[in-house]
Amino acid sequence: MKYALLTLALLTFLTARLAAQERAVSLPPPVFDPPPASDGRQKLVVAGGCFWGMQGVFQHVKGVSRAVSGYAGGTEKTAHYNLVSQGDTGHAESVEIDYDPKVVSLGKLLQVYFSVAHDPTQLNRQGPDEGTQYRSAIFFSSSEQEAAARKYVAQLSAAKAFDATIVTRLEPLSRFYPAEAYHQDYLIQHPRAPYIVYNDLPKIENLKRLLPDIYRETPALTH
Fold first, then answer.
1. pTM, entire model
2. I want to staple 18 with a disulfide (CB 3.0 to 4.6 A). Which of 1, 92, 110, 202 is the partner?
3. pLDDT by residue (tens digit) across 69-95?
4. Identified catalytic residue from 50, 68, 137, 214
């Protein structure tokens, strides 16, 4: 028990230290944040590196009922981890976010995406992961989503919010394919895995630090 407590304390300390080092930018909310075209729950599909961390971030956002790791940009035939990992399927590791627009808006989700969920200036890579399957991309499913994303990128670019050019791609969503079961809730299930501790837990801390108004302690699990 004593060893377990010491280990947990060390992980907490390292996470806090890494959060300060992890690239996160305090961004203004989008000026253009349109209401959804239809009532009820909405979905947004985004990509930006390994889906473990992206899923973990949005699971801690108020108004998100479910965030599912998966694949977008390719075909059903190649929507499998061992194939996507080769980098030539057209797929990107993505997350489908199911949210209540009465609680959290599309614009606020985009603010989380660009601010703490990933670095939108890294081309076809994110942290230690390289390849087109780790590209920064928003897979829009409506004209409202496309317009909101394009205008926010333009807003951030004009404000020189980043030191480098935003390389996030805007791609029409044909279909989202959920990833294998063992990828779901991975960050929650494996909080002490070195990859998670170093690359992903700092993102959760940055969300809590930079956007405390929409942060929630208890994550929305897929199972």
1. 0.90
2. 202
3. 999 999 999 999 999 999 999 999 999
4. 50
